[in-house]
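Assess this one:

_____
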Amino acid sequence: MPTKRLPKNAAPDPVWISARQLCDRFGGVSHMWLERRLAKDPGFPRATKFGRLRFFRLSEVVAWERAAAAKSSHAA
């Protein structure tokens, strides 16, 4: 059975995740949690719209997670 090959310049990980995938990534938080985070946290990754759907750049989400983890470890 042949294996699927990625193009030479393709990233192995997804570049974009949907708003629903983002909520699932944070433990199944609600859509309202996401709206509040976008309104109150200027450092939270901003969405890009493709049509009516919102997507987030995965690299920005990971960077925000690392920064939030670093803040919480310094506070402890």
